[in-house]
Amino acid sequence: MSEYYLAAGDRLLAMVSPSEVGNLLAAQVGRPVVALLTAHGDPVVHESVVRSLFAAGCTHFVCSGLASEALHDRIDDLLVERDGDGFLTTWHDEESAAEVAAVFFGAGEAVGTLLVAVIDERDAELATRLVEQSRLAS
After folding, report:
1. H or E element, residue 62
2. Nearest CA among 89, 104, 90 for reference residue 137
3. What are the angstrom distances between the C-alpha of 48 and each of 54, 67, 104?
C-alpha cells in the first residue's frame, strides 16, 4: 500500500506500510520529515521504522490508535538512547481521525515537508481524513 498526495507548500503526503518506509525516505532525501504512526498493538514492531525516520531527520512523531501511548513512550525511550533533543512526540488515543489528521498536518507545515503516514487496513477512516486534509492544505 503506497499512496501519495501533494499538498500546499510543496509538501508530500505518503501513506505507506512499514516495509515501504526505507525506500520512501531514500527517494525523498533532503525534505523535512514528520511521521504519523498508528499503534494497535505492540509498539516494538515499529522500532526499525522509527530508527529509519530518525536517520532521515524526522523531528516530530504523531502516534495514533489504542496503543499510541505505549508507542509514544517507546519512541521517547529510543530518543533517550540517541541523546535526542529537538524532537517532539505526541499520542492520540481518543481523538477522532479528523483531529489526528489536523495535528499531523499542523506538525508538518514547513515548505517541502514529507508527511510519512505509516498506517494499515485498520486505519481506513484515518486514511480518508488524511487525503481530505491534503486537499484542504493544497
Report:
1. strand 60-64
2. 104
3. 10, 18, 21
**Residue 16 Ramachandran class (φ > 0 left, ψ -120 to 50 alpha, else beta):** beta
Q: What is the pLDDT of residues 7-39, one digit of tens each?
A: 989 999 999 999 999 999 999 999 999 999 999
d(Cα 75, Cα 116) in Å, to the nearest integer? 16
E strands within the chain? 2-7, 11-16, 33-38, 60-64, 88-92, 114-118
The β-bridge partners of 35 are 61, 116
Q: Are 138 and 21 in contact (CB under 8 A)?
A: no
> Which of 32, 5, 37 has its CA nearest to residue 109?
32
Closest CA to 59 of 6, 135, 110: 110
Distance CA 54, CA 10 (A): 22
Whole-model pTM over 0.90:
yes
Amino acid identity, residue 112? G
Find cell 507548500 and name the residue.
9
Q: Is 9 left (phi over 0), alpha (psi -120 to 50) or beta?
A: left
